[in-house]
Write a structure and sequence with these properties.
heterodimer; A: 116 residues; mainly beta; four-stranded antiparallel beta sheet; B: 112 residues; globular
Chain lengths: 116, 112
Amino acid sequence: AQTVTQSQPEMSVQEAETVTLSCTYDTSESDYYLFWYKQPPSRQMILVIRQEAYKQQNATENRFSVNFQKAAKSFSLKISDSQLGDAAMYFCAYRIITGTASKLTFGTGTRLQVTL
Amino acid sequence: DTAVSQTPKYLVTQMGNDKSIKCEQNLGHDTMYWYKQDSKKFLKIMFSYNNKELIINETVPNRFSPKSPDKAHLNLHINSLELGDSAVYFCASSQDRPPEQYFGPGTRLTVT
């Protein structure tokens, strides 16, 4: 069974600084997707970034980038120039590529605080 | 336009009652899901449907019964509600490619 581990229950960053959230996963599959979702206090789940396991290049979306290490099964999220609006729970998630309707397996989340 | 909508957003009810949560997506996706987020914020899949066909049923008590009248709707009916059913329930939808799942706003269910 696939598992996703986020070892940092809480993180804090000052506005305009950079923070990295960690995620490791366990799978026997060779092809899969990895995601980071953000859940602000409004509780809406918002997709931040996606990475395909077959792509070596790390995904980037504006101030958000990932460090994907396939051999180490590691998928960290870097937030640059942190803003107050980045404060939220961040969830790492995994999905296999094959098969329709495949589920997301989530980590336990990291609560990110952004301070002035 | 709201992509994935759920009603109601909040639901407070007593133990033993039966309740339903409705979900609709206007993204044209073939697959819909129900996830449960517990009090510790852990998210876990409950069900998934593809074109009205049940694909995943993840060891959920049979008091929970999903129904998909068409591929744009997936409802969740819960019988004989228990205190432990209190949680936030999220509906989501996706295609196979691209694989992103888009979530509804969630329904906070409180059982007293």
